[in-house]
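Protein Record: Sequence and Backbone Structure Tokens
======================================================
Scope: a single protein chain, as residues and as a discrete description of its fold.
Tokens: labelled as protein backbone structure tokens, with as many entries as the chain has residues.
Position: the record begins directly beneath this header, with no further notes in between.
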Amino acid sequence: MQAFLERNRTAVTASVLALIGGTLIGWVVVTSGSGLSAGYPLGFVSARNSAAATSQEIVRLTGETSVALKHANEFDLAGDRTRSLHALDEARDLNARAAREAQKLSAELTGLTMSLDGFDQESRRLGYEAVATAFWLVGEFGNYTGYVDAFLAKLSEVVASRSPNYGAEVRAALGLVNTSVARINSLNAQFRDRMAIFDRAVTR
């Protein structure tokens, strides 16, 4: 956000663009069930595919949020405050849509949990552990979108007012987002590990 901020502008720009653009790259809460071998009930495959599609939509929206934020920065550098504010509004809208998709995904994970009844006891236990982690991950993503919205709102204030007194508020907002990103990455790693264990148990 070089033109948004008066000091340390390059460092802040790199941090913001990396965090918005990179948070969910490679993150798909539920991998597609297409191509699964025997041992997976059809109800589970269907529920897994639905959740995977929603996960992919979340990734897409998060990527588009990054693009909108980049455009806001470019417009501000060019001195076009109106278009910069419009791009920030677009970023907030995309972020809000990602939050709504996360709510949808939470409901789909409930369906995925119910579909685990078709597995043997051990596989079912491992599946419950994996899906529970996915619920925690989606919950943290909800926190993340809230923090991103607050951060974007603060940037909009700075652009609109041209006030140099952004200081602690902007850094605090960015810190909350970064903390949430770290939690998401940790939960994502746990989920992937537990889902791999579940898949091995089903196909052994």
